[in-house]
Amino acid sequence: MFLYSFPLLLSQLIFLPTRFIVETFCLTKIGYEEFALFQFLGIIQIYIVFIISTVSNPIISALNRSKFTEKNKWSDFNLSIIIAFSIFILSLILKSFLFYFLGEEYYNSNHSEIVYYVLMIITFVMIFKTSFFRIITLSNKTWISLESNLIWTVCLLLGYFYIFNLQPEILRLCYSLLLSFIINIIYLIIRLLLNKILPFKIVLSKPVLLTVFFLFLNHFLLDYWYLQLSLLLFYLFFNFLFITKFFKYNA
Questions:
Q1: How many CA atoms lie within 13 A of 205 on its CB side?
Q2: Cβ distance 235 to 83 under 8 Å?
């Protein structure tokens, strides 16, 4: 039990203090509008990830019925990415409302649009990452979580102090966080594939490919919320067809 839980504990002891120290170091050097905007979005990010994890974990566990089959890996992996993408698009659609709630001084703060967009991408990655955590935990490979968080820490520090050190302070922090989370998720995918914990056909399943394609399309629709909403509805419709077909042939 100790060898099972210790890597998870150590992962959090690395992740949380590192992010806190880097964010504190950055936020003491920026204006109060940027500071307030980042903190507000950070709180929203925490609530979104917490609520989604709390709601989705029992549902996915019920679908899996405590059995860790390839079918359950498929459903866990793909449902997580579908939920993550849906929340990401909704957050972009609701951006104007959130900025209105904050006030004009925050909306007009330096780089507010970029900060919002980058933090929502990070939220998307964090929600998607919950499926990896379940797979790692059920496979009794918790040391992989520790490895990935060590890599995350190194990437964050390198990004903030070296790679993006010429960027404005708030963008320096956001880009560093984005880099660390993206490399973290790529490492997890590669590690799980090499250990044959996650089949390659799941990583390249239709919902995943559809998500990548729709993420690309969304880049051209950032100024049109109604088109983003249409995009989300089409995305959910096609994924409903994919999931229904998958469970029909794997009953």
A1: 23
A2: no
Q: Average pLDDT of each block of 10 consecutive residues along the chain (251 residues)?
A: 64 79 82 77 83 68 60 80 89 83 70 86 87 76 84 92 88 92 92 85 88 89 86 92 81 62
Phi, psi of 139 (to 5 degrees): -85, 0
Token pair, residue 222, equals 């950032």
CB atoms within 10 A of CB 168: 14
| CA–CA separation, 121 and 92 (whole Å) | 10
CB neighbour class for 122 (10 Å; exposed up to 12, middle 13-18, buried from 19):
buried
What sign for the dihedral angle of Cα 43, 48, 54, 60?
A: negative
Overall size of the chain counted in residues: 251
Closest to 202 measured CA to CA, from 80, 96, 31, 73: 73
Q: What is the pTM of this model?
A: 0.86
Do residues 140 and 4 touch, judged by C-beta distance below 8 A?
yes
